[in-house]
Amino acid sequence: MRVLLDTCVWGGALTRLESSGIDAEWTGRWQKDPGDYEILAYAHKEERVLVTLDKDFGEIAVLRDIPHHGIVRLVNIPARLQADICIKVLMRYGLELQKGAIVTVEPGRVRIRTAEQ
Question: Who's near 66: CB < 8 A, 6+ residues apart?
Fold first, then answer.
């Protein structure tokens, strides 16, 4: 599984994901933030699931019908738990994400918007 972590995701999650065998990249290491549209396009081109805390990516993808390779939005997940939650979500919903699902994760709740919705 290939993942792109948005800048707002805790940078320490990168190491944990990589040590779990996930091909991860973090936009926080990029020299410049190119903006949401470019980040979403890059993730799609590189076939990476985008992990973010920002609801804008889902809105851009759905309302503007922008293609993507799956989006995971973490809501109120403490920084130190973000990587472990991502790993669980990727393992459980990986196939749906690769088909363009949007998975929103909150404490005690997971919502999935499939590409067909």
Answer: 37, 40, 41, 44, 60
Rama region for 55: left / alpha / beta (φ>0; ψ in -120 to 50; rest): alpha
- At 115, is the pLDDT very low, low, confident or very high (cuts 50, 70, 90)? confident
pLDDT in tens, 33-55: 889 999 999 999 999 999 999 99
Evaluate whether 59 touches 34 at the Cβ level (below 8 Å): no
Asked whether 44 and 70 are in contact (CB, 8 A), the reply is: no
Residue linked to tokens 């005690």: 108
